[in-house]
Design brief:
The chain has a single domain (about 20-260), classed as 3-Layer(aba) Sandwich (Rossmann fold). The protein has 7 helices and 9 strands. The protein has helices at about 25-40, 50-65, 90-100, 125-150, 175-195, 215-225, 235-245; strands at about 20, 40-45, 75-80, 105-110, 155-160, 200-205, 210, 235, 255-260. The strands form 2 sheets. The chain has a 7-stranded parallel sheet, sandwiched between helices. The longest helix has 29 residues, at about 125-150.
Length: about 260
């Protein structure tokens, strides 16, 4: 089923659930938010800098809800995260988001800054920025969301790792980013263990090379050349994987490389 365009609402387990997609105004997050709306969720999205992109995605979400025969109850707001970029600290951002949204039934964190740098050229500021925003921020969000989910005895958490961070490996030019995203897997396993044998789950998807509106065409060409004709994925493909993971009653603590078997 298409994530947008085909608005036939599947009255499944997400109908009437409140979903929060951090980074849901664009890229993979936008596609995931639309998938949740198609399936009957009331979706709140956050964006970083672009009010126009946020409003456009919110209009699409409301169209999905209306086409499914529901009164739109979707919302969105800007929340710039990342202290080194004049944004909020992880704690400030998490508090701001939860204050505005309340505790969600479904939490998806698809936002996380990326930076290429060799290990010797990675500054202390880079380390703080990448680890605080790719590990500490989602960690705080998971801690805040889990308490309420455990009280309701139902919940879904989905985090996004980086390409090839489903297991421990070395990275020549993304050491700090790779370390933070790999550590995110331990967080997922810990959360899953704390809610085992309940109707709550926490999983992580590690997408392959994915084309979004933020993608640099030259970067995509570089990966195609480096990785012997690697398939560049679409946000819709990753979102369909996300829907399957979120809907699954048995996946918990899974770290899934959604990369078509990419070999780097």
């Amino acid at each position: 089923m298409a994530l947008s365009g085909d608005h036939n609402n599947e009255k499944g387990i997400f109908a009437g659930k409140r979903a929060l997609v951090v980074g849901g105004s664009g890229g993979i997050g936008r596609a995931v938010a639309l998938g949740l709306a198609v399936r009957g969720s009331d979706v709140t999205i956050t964006g970083g800098n672009s009010k126009g992109r946020l409003e456009q995605t919110l209009a699409e979400l409301n169209d999905v809800s209306s086409s499914g025969g529901r009164e739109p109850k979707n919302s969105g707001f800007l929340c710039k995260i990342g202290m080194s970029d004049r944004g909020l600290s992880p704690q400030e951002a998490a508090d701001c988001i939860i204050k505005q949204t309340g505790s969600p039934d479904i939490l998806v964190v698809s936002w996380g800054p990326f930076k290429k740098s060799t290990l010797k050229d990675t500054s202390p500021e880079d380390w703080h920025f990448l680890v605080e925003n790719n590990l500490i921020f989602p960690g705080i969000m998971v801690s805040l969301a889990l308490s309420d989910m455990m009280g309701k005895k139902w919940g879904r958490i989905l985090l996004f790792g980086g390409t090839k961070t489903a297991e421990i490996r070395g990275f020549l030019d993304t050491a700090a980013y790779g370390a933070a995203k790999t550590a995110l897997g331990s967080l997922v396993k810990s959360a899953a263990k704390s809610v085992q044998n309940t109707e709550i789950s926490c999983n992580m998807i590690c997408p392959g090379i994915t084309a979004t509106e933020y993608s640099d065409p030259a970067e995509l060409d570089y990966y195609r050349e480096k990785c012997s004709g690697v398939k560049v994925l679409t946000v819709q493909e990753i979102a369909e994987c996300a829907m399957a993971v979120l809907e699954s009653p048995v996946l918990n603590g899974a770290i899934i490389p959604a990369d078509s078997g990419l070999w780097v």
